[in-house]
Amino acid sequence: MFDNSPNSLAILNYFDEKFGQIIAPIGLFKVCALISSQLERPRLSLVHITPPRQFKTWTSKDAIAMFPDFVYEAGSDFTIPHLYKDTEGDLDRKCIVINDGTVLFRSKTSRGSSRVMGGLAELIADEKYHYGDYKTGFDLKGRCNCIMNMALASFQRNERALEESTFLDKFLVLFYRMPLEEQLAYMRKNKWRERAGKQLIMPEVHVKIIARKVQIGNYAGQLELLVKDFSALSGRAPMGQADAITALASAHAILNNRFWLCDDDIEILRIARDYVSNPNAPNKGKIIQYWQQGRSIRDICLSLGREYEKYRPYVSKVLKDAQNEGVIDTEAV
User: 174 and 301 share a domain?
Assistant: First the structure.
């Protein structure tokens, strides 16, 4: 794996040694998002969702340390005027890193949170956002993207607001839960490292950013199939998922000083596919995939080992939501 991607291999090995196998790809995805800030369209924006104390902040800090020039650190509590004052309105070629979306939501009224999310969504999509109230008005501008960390429980509470602001339409949403055994292995490894006096050395990653576009070549068909997978598993519209996976593959190529896709860039998408299903709704993606295969609601319930009369309403709701999102185009009855 990654025979043509030495930088990716070094980054994965570093995060694996530091945090474990589950978290290692998250570090690489965040590095790719930072690289993506240098691309023309599409660019990769991430929402990274885990339970508390599972290294959301630490992986961001390490990724930022590798590419600090590409980052605007927004912290966890800010407003649109704060962004303008801090950057003089210019966020061009920057990845806006929000350390904790949970804190951002809790520190504001519903209207304030909606304004931040809506403003960022418009800025990322249109490269310009005009802010105006009864006191002042100004423009934020720039070809930029965003990484936001968020606790799983907070995401569940605020998902509707994030959807309504169109914020999530611009993002690849990634989930994971670190298994207990992996948490214990992390603690054992850290204790051994402390006793041994061993220090991890961050890899030196040399990237020549000389291209704003990456050639897809013969990979269009594979990307199309992956878009269908990502859309079904996430329950999000294919168009947004297509932009996200194209940007991830492109940034991964540039990270490894290539300006055309190769098998390694498809491999990172296959790895990312394992992180797009919401662990609080594990059957959602399976339901959509089964429906796309032409199965009936009754057959879907049986395939999932559920009693038809009790589970049918949930299956119908998932399919109705998927139709409203544009994931499927046939109505479930």
Answer: no
The order of strands in the sheet holding 145-151 is 71-75, 95-98, 145-151, 46-50, 172-175
Mean of pLDDT values over 234-259 = 94
Q: What is the pLDDT of residue 332?
A: 56
Q: Could you give the C-alpha distances from 183 to 23, 53, 54, 80, 277, in angstroms and in order?
A: 11, 10, 9, 37, 21
Tell me how far apart the alpha carbons of residues 95 and 163 are, in angstroms, rounded to a whole number: 21
**Is the pTM here over 0.85, yes or no?**
yes
212 falls within a domain: no
List CB contacts of 185: < 8 A, sequence separation 6 or more.
20
Give the C-alpha separation, 96 to 76, whole Å. 11
Residue 331 has a pLDDT of: 67
pLDDT band at 33 (very low <50, low <70, confident <90, very high): very high
Rounded distance between C-alpha atoms, residue 269 and residue 246, angstroms: 9
- Enclosing domain of residue 308: 284-325
Q: Are residues 41 and 175 in the same domain?
A: yes
Q: Is residue 193 part of a domain?
A: no
Mean pLDDT across the stretch 9-26? 94
How many structural domains does the chain have?
A: 2
Nearest-10 crossing angle of helices 263-273, 220-234:
10
Domain boundary among 157, 179, 201: 179
DSSP string, 63-119: HHHHSGGGEEEEESS--HHHHHHHHTTB-TT-EEEES-HHHHHHTS-HHHHHHHHHH
At 16 the pLDDT is 94
Question: What is the distance between the alpha carbons of residues 178 and 112, in angstroms, rounded to a whole number?
Answer: 32
